[in-house]
Design brief:
This protein is of the alpha/beta class. It contains 13 helices and twelve strands.
Length: about 300
């Protein structure tokens, strides 16, 4: 099942990290921006093509050391249809390079609408007698705070396609405490969601590593909660945002892993994408800068978390 694929990639590279492909145009080196604006004018098409070139260069530099990429849909939607078409190309290129692709979409609707989202991002749509893939990601993020009506349509498609999903449980943003730390009866809200995620994944744990196909987003900025959640959710794979720029450290994210260093993947976006901004070379070395940043992150985490 799908998280086994991700875990195998992590073990093969000894690197439990994912790079967020969340590029705004200003993150793209000036020479790429200038080239595309010269070709397409000051248009959405120019922005989309500049970001696609940047994405491909990053993936070329990282494909042998990083197991997964995570494009965030918002950074493509803001460029209209050109951006969404470019996102599909980005996912296709990522798969050609061997990456596991997590589409960070955070959808949170119900019923037939949730099914349509799941078909578009993970599954297929029937056109006549033909099944046509949509974005064809390996995994998506889902906001499950509307309950099982949100998650089950994604899980159904994920089971059909042998894919998986991450449900928001304990997020890394400061205002998460406004809802997720509220007490519901004798429990805290995020622990209730954790219990639901384990329940939703029950029955899909017959994999080599024992993780279900329903994972959890668990932020690095609350390490004590991360430790509790790992104990509460032994069969759940974690996606861990908040490392680096948001304040999470390697010691913090270590709590996300099981005793074998398995069951979690840690995200970095701007820290790797924008590493070129610190080299003083105007982005001409953006691939190498990203590679060095990714290696530094890998080594930082491996120093406290053995990957067995």
């Amino acid at each position: 099942m799908s998280f086994d694929v991700l875990q195998e990639k992590i073990r093969g590279m000894k690197n439990p990290t994912v790079v967020g492909l969340d590029a705004r145009l200003e993150y793209v080196p000036p020479h790429i921006r200038a080239e595309k604006i010269a070709e397409f004018g000051e248009t959405r098409k120019a922005a989309a093509e500049a970001i696609f070139t940047f994405n491909c260069g990053l993936m070329d530099a990282l494909s042998d050391i990083v197991p997964a990429v995570k494009p965030q849909a918002a950074y493509y939607e803001n460029l209209g249809w050109e951006g969404m078409e470019m996102l599909e190309r980005t996912i296709r290129y990522a798969k050609e390079k061997g990456f596991f692709v997590i589409a960070d979409i955070k959808r949170g609707d119900i019923g037939s609408t949730a099914t349509a989202y799941a078909e578009g991002w993970l599954g297929k749509t029937i056109v006549g007698d033909t099944k046509c893939s949509g974005f064809n990601a390996d995994c998506v993020t889902v906001n499950g705070y509307m309950g099982s009506d949100t998650v089950k349509p994604f899980l159904t498609v994920a089971e059909d396609e042998d894919k998986c999903l991450f449900v928001l449980v304990r997020t890394s943003n400061p205002s998460a405490i406004e809802l997720q730390d509220m007490v519901a009866g004798d429990r805290v809200v995020y622990t209730v969601m954790a219990e639901l995620v384990e329940r939703w994944g029950k029955g899909s744990q017959d994999s080599e590593y024992g993780f279900s196909r329903v994972g959890a987003v668990t932020g690095a900025t609350y390490p004590s909660d991360l430790r509790k959640l790992r104990k509460q959710m032994p069969h759940t794979f974690f996606l861990v945002p908040g490392y680096g720029a948001q304040g999470g450290t390697a010691e913090d994210v270590a709590y996300a892993f099981d005793p074998y260093g398995r069951g979690a993947i840690v995200n970095s976006s701007r820290g790797i994408m924008c590493a070129w901004q610190k080299t003083g070379n105007e982005g001409l070395d953006y691939g190498e800068a990203a590679r060095q940043a990714a290696l530094t992150m890998r080594d930082d985490i491996r120093a406290v978390t053995p990957i067995l």
